[in-house]
## 1
Amino acid sequence: MKRMLLITGSLLGLTAVILGAFGAHGLKESLTPEAVNSFETGVRYQMYHAFLLLLTGTALPLTEKAQKSTFYLILLGVLLFSGSIYLLTTKPLTGIDISAIAWITPIGGALLISAWILITYNFIKYVK
């Protein structure tokens, strides 16, 4: 599980940097400032959770079960939250319209919050 956490955290961080650069240089001329700001929010949250996966795989005193649950909550949360923001904000460029299922954005956010709650709970019960 640690290997999966580290690889996934690294890949999420890598793609966050790539998407951040794309947003900063490739989208500013094509989208409204509000859309670019929203896109950057998706990038920011993806990067925060890339770091959290790296910490979960290396430094946090979590059980294997807690690591696995955290992994899936973060992965699905980032895909739904950040992924939906990317698609919603770039609709004028891509033509992809997911507005009918835009409700997945807050579900992704709830999954990310759940990961933080799980980690907090494990810290509270952790005895060393």
## 2
Amino acid sequence: MHIRPLGLEDVPAYLSLRTSLWPGGGADREEVEGLLSRSDQAAFVAEEAGALVGFVEVALRPYAEGCTTSPVGYLEGWYVAPAWRGQGIGRLLVEAAEDWARARGCREMASDAEPGNLLGQEAHRRLGYQEVERLICFRKDL
């Protein structure tokens, strides 16, 4: 298993993984290409035998719920293909994201999970993340 930064050559396979996590918007190539060009964001992939089997996207945010420092490293997206789960790949991806954030001066890391994503919530807890808040968001067309 090899954890490494996302490269432009990875984008087609990467979009497939992103779509598995975000079916409604994961295939946005422009968003991924923008991610590759920004200094305040990064993505890491897990590669096995030439195939991408997982990823993590991380960004710097000025604040995050429950955090007291700034900037904060933020796990924007984290996914391991089902056949590869339970082997420590998710942990290695998050460690790469945390190292990236630490190298940019972050002293805290934050993330979120949908209320119904119990697997994601448990994965965060196993890596030492503490739940700090439950949030229901609203919107209205004007």
## 3
Amino acid sequence: MGRKEKLVERFLDIPTDFTWDELVKILNYFGYFELKKGKTGGSRRKFCNANLHIISLHKPHPSNIVKEYALRQVKDHLQAKGEIKNE
């Protein structure tokens, strides 16, 4: 099992210490890219894939740890779109 697969496994467990950078890697792994919104986009970030499915998230600050509810929202979205299997 490679690094990305291990990171996906970790993500699916909804850890309390999951970082923003790890979440961005997960989204990139599933084909999502960040939409740029000008030079002062604030802390709201949007990610889109080739099928134009959009995930909107709040980039955490000052800490880099993503809130548990945000991880659950991303997991639910990826399951609904068929990117990951339901448990």
## 4
Amino acid sequence: MQPSQDIARLVEIMAALRDPTTGCPWDIEQSFDTIIPYTIEETYEVVDAIERRDAQDLKEELGDLLLQVVYYAQMASELGLFRFEDVVEGITNKMIRRHPHVFGDAEARSARSAKGQWERIKAEEKRERREAREKARAAFPADAAFDEWTPGREENLNGLLDSVPGALPALALSRKIQEKAATVGFDWTEAAPILAKLREETDEFEEAVAGDDPDAREAELGDILFTVVNLARRYDIDPDAALRRTAAKFRARFAAMEAEAVREGRTLAEMSLDDQETLWQRAKGSENRGKR
């Protein structure tokens, strides 16, 4: 089999890897659940390549991420749920429908700012998903060994927050929940009460620490983080990006500390905390001079 720029070749390769007789033993053993960690890892590797502005790595990592989509689609096809082509058709249909001001007729283009247009489109999509589930349920084999994938088993999504995926990373999950709540007015309109709330939560965390209750400590720390996300929203800051930026800064300063220690003929592990702090301040000062 030869490589190709045609996406169909990647689908063929995945089908061959999953072939029960001639495929790869590792790939054959995988399931939707076992692949999840790899999907998360590949997503973050794409982000890392972008932040490093490494075009070659980005090209490779995007390929790895695309493979995850093909992998899930192949397993779904094996169960008779859907095919990769259905995934492509679904997303192209969604993009066309959600952008009538780009792909629609003259009337749709002139109604670019029509009030309620987005809500109408979303309502139509929800209705069509419900109809598709009902149709699939009727066609699904009654004796299927994979009942957990039975079409039509839909959760009750009547609550405002029910549409927020619970598997999102904690910072993104918190931000999405807060944004949803804000659509009905449940939100602070100024930063001052958020800062006051942060101080209140910090005090409560100190009380929990003094009480030596591990569960209370975790709960109160969660409250602090949730409030910090709210503060980030108020100033239009992505909390995940802000934290990643700080982590990158810490890594750079720590690397500078290690290099300085080597120049002194020592290791960080041999140093006292005071000596380490001296190296930290040097690294920080060097960083600030570099900015100037």
